[in-house]
Amino acid sequence: MARRPLRRSSAVQLAVLGVVGLAVGRAMRPFLEWRDSVVPTVSWVAAGTMLFLAAILGVLAWTTFQSLHRERRTMHATRALRLLALAKASAIVTALIAGYYVGFALSFAGDMELALPRERVVRSAAAAIAALVALAAALALERACEVPHDDEDSDEAAQA
Questions:
Q1: Which listed residue, 55, 63, 80, 101, has the most CB atoms within 10 A of its CB?
Q2: pLDDT digit of tens for each residue in the chain (160 aa)?
Q3: 93-132 burial by CB neighbour count: b if 16+ within 10 A, else e?
Q4: pTM score, whole prediction
Q5: How far apart are alpha carbons 32 and 126 in whole angstroms?
């Protein structure tokens, strides 16, 4: 069985996931109205949860970058793989969530003169922005997990 090297999350992959989330979010309102169900409101907790996730991922990215790239410490392979798996999974999920909230907000964008749809749009937009911040933090953690190349070591040794 051939091994495939781990690659960074690609922009195309994340964009496709965002579009899938957008389509699901956009279709949620018509689907629920067709089923005579109540369309849910969006709580501020959604945005707060995404910001909390972004903060955790950001701290992990910062400490990992400092440890591997600045201080040139080693990291146990199991820990590095766990951090990388967390980063990749977080990037995938936050791309889907951001797309979902954008689609959900777009489904109410035509009814902005009413209070409840306007509230859904504002809170969905806040959740989408918070998900994009978490996506950026996940990508930063993914980049921080990269092992420095040997040529970087020789370049820095030559400069010193």
A1: 101
A2: 677 777 888 999 999 999 999 999 999 999 999 999 999 999 999 999 999 999 999 999 999 999 988 888 888 889 999 999 999 999 999 999 999 999 999 999 988 889 999 999 999 999 999 999 999 999 999 999 987 776 655 555 444 4
A3: bbbbbbbbbbbbbbbbeeeeeeeebeebbebbbbbbbbbb
A4: 0.86
A5: 22
CA atoms of 128 and 72, how far apart (whole Å): 36
Residue 116 carries which DSSP code?
H
For residues 112 and 120, the answer to whether their CB atoms sit within 8 Å is no
**DSSP conformation letters of 90-115:** HHHHHHHHHHHHHHHHHHHGGGTTSH
38 neighbors 32 (Cβ within 8 angstroms): yes
